[in-house]
Amino acid sequence: MKKTNLIINIILIIVIIGLIVSTVSLFNRYKALEFELSDEYMMNEWLYVNGERHEKNNIIDIEDRYFIDYKFVKDLIYDDIELSNSEQRVYVKFDSKWADLDDEFLNEFITENIIDINIPLVNYNENKYLPLETIARALFFEYGFTGNDIWIITQDKLETVSISGSKIFINENLNIPNKQSNNNTDFYGVLTEKACFVANDENLGYVTLDSVKVKESDRRFLSEYYFDDREKVEEPFYLVWDQINSYKGALNFNNELVEKSADIISPTFLGLNINGIVINEADYKYVQWVHDMDKEVWVLASNSFNPEWTNEMLSNPVLVDRFISQLCVLTLIYEFDGINIDFENIYLKDKELLNEFMEKLYRITKKMDIPLSIDVTIPEGSDQWSKVYDRKFLAKSTDYIFLMAYDEFWASSNISGPVASIPWTIEGIDKTLELVSNEKLVLGIPGYMRVWKDYKSSNDSSVLSIRNRDNYVEENGLSVEYLSELMINYSEKKENGMLTRVWYEDSTSISQRLDLVKQYNLPGIGLWRRGFIDSETEIIIQQNLSGRE
């Protein structure tokens, strides 16, 4: 009996030892599998949308800028977007809930009048991509980068959460712990059926629902980008227009900025199209770049120099309101600091309609607390390029009037002459000041001149910038003389029956224009355009505008 019990005990011990060994072995195999799966996961890079995993290649990096596939956005984030006919942009239908500004008038105006906005895209490897930061701002979704992964959480799912007493897992089944440790900082989160997807700069994954505390569920939209108490730019200010003709041009924003002491950059981002549509070539990173230099962005909105489109819009109150509401929303999304209206080549019959348009827009910009300006020519010119401006009325409906005191002789002029002689400029200021107070009149100055080629029976011209002037003079062996009656420098050269003539924009003319700003006590200058002047001219501007170091 004792022998039998001993045998049984030995067998039990052997069984127990076997079970222990098997359990340890199974546990080790499980841990090995767990780490193998975890390692396999960590070796891949993913894109998470509201906690669902997708291929990361839906977002691409082009020269340190992130773009997201248009079709991916339409399928998984917001389906109410459509390609334009040109396939150069997408139209995003505006949802009324997005207008949550702390101003009932603005909210009603936007929701009643806007249909959509458009955002430019890029073509890459036969696919179409939207700038990630811009579309995120337009659709109000949050995104971020955690290690090699990217995550997106849309506004309807977004929560701000804290987690406690829980590991972060790498899948929604919560059976493979994440190698990264949990910290106690806040997360962006989205609640799923099985778990809560959480993400911040350091950690990403899933946690149990009972370990989550929702801290914030506020659905903020346009109010996220709206801010009050803007500081007025110090006068006399220095604005430089930046001519950008395409979205590709906007992407190349960080080329050399000679105009370093400018207070305001005015990019030509927005333009009128048919049906009161605002064609948008803006880039949010451009705006950030300007703001990082402690400068403001007064976006230029043009009528595309098209009198028919302008007449169509101005003569239809519905299209006027549509155009203005788009300006409002784009200003908020891109964080423009002001709006500069550049409507040129307008039918004289639309003069009163232009007044009404600016009066309505001014009411809106006042509500938004941003400056509104308009560009006008010197009085007493042609019907469509000068007489169409009711300067006295427009001065009441804007914060500033920019006097485009250049193109005394146009590119297509039958007679060659200076871009802006000083007496002509003085006369233009005097005539304009009869209608506009000096407190609102900003002097536009040219950073260019024209090289005229006069033949026996015809002529033509080409633009020469100040920064290329000295090379042109040297290469062509020109001698320069001062014309006292025009108060500018001049040179000419006759060769093979052709007379080359140049009236120069240089330190002499620029200094005299800046003296006029002081003489008339004007609030500043507008320089046409970025990239035209050299560092010497920039120093002259910097030294001549008072209050600058």
Summarize the structure in words:
α14 (507-519) runs parallel beside α15 (535-544). 33% of the residues lie in helices and 27% in strands. The chain is elongated and about 130 Å long. β3 and β4 (66-69) form a beta hairpin. The strands form six sheets. It has an eight-stranded parallel β-barrel, surrounded by four helices. Strands 15-14-13-12-16 form a five-stranded antiparallel β-sheet, with no helix packed on it. Strands 27-26-30-29-28 form a five-stranded antiparallel β-sheet. It has 549 residues and is of the alpha/beta class.
Overview features:
549 residues; alpha/beta; 8-stranded parallel β-barrel; 5-stranded antiparallel beta sheet; 15 helices; 31 strands
Structural class: alpha/beta
Portion in strands: 25-35%
How helix-rich are the residues, as a percent range? Answer: 25-40%
* Largest sheet features: 8 strands, parallel, barrel
Q: What is the radius of gyration computed over CA atoms, rounded to a whole number of angstroms?
A: 32 Å
Quantity of strands, as a count = 31
Spatial sequence of strands, sheet with the most strands: 17-18-21-22-23-24-25-31
**Termini, distance in Å?**
108 Å
Uncertain stretches: 32-36
Quick check: average pLDDT? 92
Count of discrete alpha- or pi-helical segments spanning 4 or more residues: 15
The shape is elongated
